[in-house]
Write a structure and sequence with these properties.
Low-confidence stretches: 449-455
Mean pLDDT: 86
Strand content: 15-25%
Largest sheet: 11 strands, mixed
CATH class of the largest domain: Alpha Beta
Number of strands: 13
Shape: elongated
Number of helices: 15
Structural class: alpha/beta
CATH superfamily of the largest domain: Aldolase class I
Helix content: 25-40%
Number of domains: 3
Bound molecules: iron/sulfur cluster
Amino acid sequence: MDSHSVYNLPSVVPDDNSTTVLQQVERIGFMGAVPANWRDGVSMKAHLELHIEQGPYLVNSNQDIAQNRRGLASVGVITAEPGSVNPVPEEVTMSLDIRHPKDETVEAIVHDIADYLENRRRSLYLAPPFLLDDYTPRYQLLSSIDEAKKRSAAYAHLRQCNLCPRLCNVNRYEETGYCLIGAETVKVSTIAPHFGEEPCLQGHNGSGSVFFSGCNMRCVFCQNHDIAHQRQGFDLTPDDLAGWMMKLQEVGKVHNINFVTPEHVVPQVALAILAARDSGLTVPIVYNTSSFDSLDSLKLMDGLVDIYLPDFKVWSDSTSKRLLKTEAYAEHARASIAEMYRQVGDLCFTGDGIAKKGVLIRHLVMPGKEEEGVQIMNWIADTLGKDVFVNVMEQYRPDAHVGKAKRGAKEDAEKRYAEINRAVSDQEIGIVQKAARDAGLWRLAEAARHGGFNI
Ligand code: SF4
């Protein structure tokens, strides 16, 4: 806005349009003789304009606290400690100049701002305990002895596989177990930068995702049933997989390598990470799991994984049996997630808002199962702590066997799993979200509203 427009602005005093800025400035003797504007032909050494980018956005969304009371507030002095070029400051202070002719309105604005800050205070994921100046992936820190032990353990597991709670006890070089995947190769459906993850994982360039085919579970509502149950995809050795990881890093510029449904191929994944490390891999590893893992397989992953992304699906054994076709799922999930948390702790970020290390727990709210979600939120807060990063997911939709008749049955036969043959309601989602907040959880993932990256 040029100075002439500013001079003509009316008074901000309610119901007083009789004076302008110019009249008031002249009245108090502050007008001076030289126009303070380069557009008026004044020769000056430098001209600096500062624009607060969020200003119009806040006004339009009715969040401008000062303007709501017809006052003005401006930030003047900002100091950062430490205030040097590279470190993320531990403490930032700023002055806030609040103006209004009436003292009580100034006090009301101060009160509004304090209220706002109090309510928003805990939603900053980047609070100092969770900020990293820099990060080196854990696999980079493995000693050569530990690396050799990992390789040896990986081959041993494949020769007698008890890698997940199915405990098949088979030699996967000769036969397959429940997951139907052998030892020499993994079956992969898709490898690509993926933009369907949490903003802190996908960032601007995507999460370098490897979607494995096959699974050690048989969820009746599986939204990837074509690859999980029907095992579509192509076969890769650990060395092939390492090559793809390098392509994701070098060509895709992804923020991490994200192994999706890796529970049944943990030894091959371990060997691939070690091979990729030797080829120059430097991005963090994400282990994206149903939580139906064993402590043995997580021990193999210890030191190789940076971010655990466990999905805690259901709480009750009856739901586990009926919908996951799995016994004692919650018991195994609790033990697995506790071990993941022991290894890497709370989710931590670098200053660019990208997650580098820690646990991010997901829970997909299911129709009619909101009370199980409440139990899961309470367990997370009570057992692991209130700083755990949690994503309460809303995108359930009927899929796989849900709402379909049994194979070979007549068309008008009863549809299966009718109780979950609908979308989840806003009320059900709200109950789980409220339970999370009531339990004290505060680092709750939010989708990027503009469809891109936010923190
Ligand atoms: S990973 Fe596969 S073979 Fe091994 S115990 Fe689990 S289901 Fe069985």
